[in-house]
């Protein structure tokens, strides 16, 4: 398990009769932004809370930064910064003073570090305003500043995109890249696929307490790719005849396609050339060929919509700080 900042094996956690993790195996490479993607209720927050020692798993193992981790192993957590539920800020103190209060709970932090992290999260100009005047997104960014203040090797961010606007997400991506460029590792959870696509370079998809897919984003995009080929209308039947027996998944042209000539072939994108060649060998020449990734279809096929919440709910419908998320 070398080169892994986080590794879990067979992690199980139940709340009474309610299973939250059902044998979760995860591998977070050092220096990556790992997107932990799953619908609401899949077990993301539960995992994060186990990783910072707030919860004890019922079974399984956790390794953090190359060493076994047990709850109560507090010193190990100095190397870990986290934003799990939004911290309860003091509304009448400034953002900067709140940060100083939170920093005082950890290892010694010089004042220059406080100003540095406020700069990182884009709050320098509002650092002296009271937190009660902050928007949701600004509070979220202050939460990230709290997680960063001790300069941790490993950063855990649970749904950090909540409350951030698109520009805030882009700024966060830059911040996370800046951190990983220094060899740090970031685990970021989300139930929103486009957010993970924007932020992460390695993705783990979690469904009902199990990791159902894991790998570099590029690879998942490749696996979920399909190829569209365009052929003469009178060749459509022949193409289907040529490709179908080989186990290639095929979608005939849609009724909505006025040309009736685009066929969708579900193969990985690296097979596009092979499909083209096979058809050419049989004297069928395609007049168009394009590859499209459909991570959303892959995500939907791997995950379950739970009766409560599920992936349809807007992020702001989640229970807020204090309760579980
Ligand atoms: N404190 C709790 N008591 C009872 N059930 C809980 C508690 N926290 C979470 N759960 C349940 O555990 C499962 C996983 O929840 P959670 O880890 O919060 O998922 P996610 O963060 O992916 O939305 C869900 O079914 C949830 O209802
Ligand atoms: Mg959660």
Describe this structure in words.
The protein is of the alpha/beta class. The chain is elongated and about 75 Å long. The model is unreliable at 309-325 (pLDDT under 50). Helix 2 (95-104) packs across helix 3 and helix 3 crosses helix 4 (136-148). The two termini are 30 Å apart. Strands 6-7-8-3-9-10 form a six-stranded mixed β-sheet, with helices on both faces. It is built from ten helices and 14 strands. It has two domains: 4-216 and 300-317, P-loop containing nucleotide triphosphate hydrolases (Rossmann fold, 3-Layer(aba) Sandwich); 225-293, Alpha-Beta Plaits (2-Layer Sandwich), CATH 3.30.70. The chain has helices at residues 44-51, 95-104, 111-120, 136-148, 166-181, 193-199, 217-223, 236-243, 272-281, 295-302, and strands at 4-15, 18-29, 33-37, 59-64, 67-68, 80-83, 154-158, 185-190, 202-207, 210-216, 225-230, 249-251, 262-266, 288-293. Bound molecules: adenosine-5'-diphosphate and magnesium ion (MG). The site of adenosine-5'-diphosphate (ADP) has 13 residues, from strand 2 and helix 1.
């Amino acid at each position: 398990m070398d080169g892994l900042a986080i590794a879990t094996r067979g992690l199980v956690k139940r709340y009474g009769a309610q299973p939250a993790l059902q044998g979760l195996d995860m591998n977070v490479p050092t220096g990556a932004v790992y997107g932990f993607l799953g619908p609401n209720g899949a077990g993301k927050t539960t995992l994060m809370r186990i990783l910072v020692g707030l919860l004890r798993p019922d079974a399984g193992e956790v390794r953090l930064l190359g060493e076994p981790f047990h709850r109560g192993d507090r010193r190990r957590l100095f190397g870990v910064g986290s934003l799990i539920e939004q911290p309860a800020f003091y509304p009448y103190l400034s953002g900067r003073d709140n940060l100083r209060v939170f920093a005082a709970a950890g290892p010694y932090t010089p004042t220059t570090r406080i100003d540095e992290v406020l700069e990182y999260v884009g709050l320098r100009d509002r650092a002296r305003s009271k937190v009660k005047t902050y928007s949701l997104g600004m509070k979220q960014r202050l939460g990230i500043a709290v997680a960063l203040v001790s300069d941790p090797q490993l950063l855990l961010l649970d749904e950090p995109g909540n409350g951030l606007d698109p520009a805030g997400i882009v700024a966060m991506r830059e911040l996370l890249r800046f951190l990983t460029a220094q060899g740090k590792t970031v685990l970021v959870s989300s139930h929103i696929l486009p957010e993970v696509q924007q932020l992460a370079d390695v993705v783990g998809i979690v469904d009902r307490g199990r990791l159902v897919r894991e790998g570099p984003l590029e690879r998942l995009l490749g696996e979920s790719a399909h190829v569209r080929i365009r052929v003469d209308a009178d060749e459509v039947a022949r193409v289907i005849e040529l490709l179908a027996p080989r186990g290639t998944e095929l979608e005939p042209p849609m009724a909505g396609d006025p040309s009736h000539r685009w066929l969708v072939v579900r193969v990985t994108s690296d097979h596009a050339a092979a499909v083209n060649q096979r058809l050419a060998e049989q004297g069928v020449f395609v007049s168009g060929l394009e590859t499209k990734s459909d991570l959303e279809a892959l995500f939907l096929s791997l995950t379950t919509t739970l009766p409560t919440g599920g992936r349809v709910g807007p992020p702001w419908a989640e229970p807020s700080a204090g309760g579980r998320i």
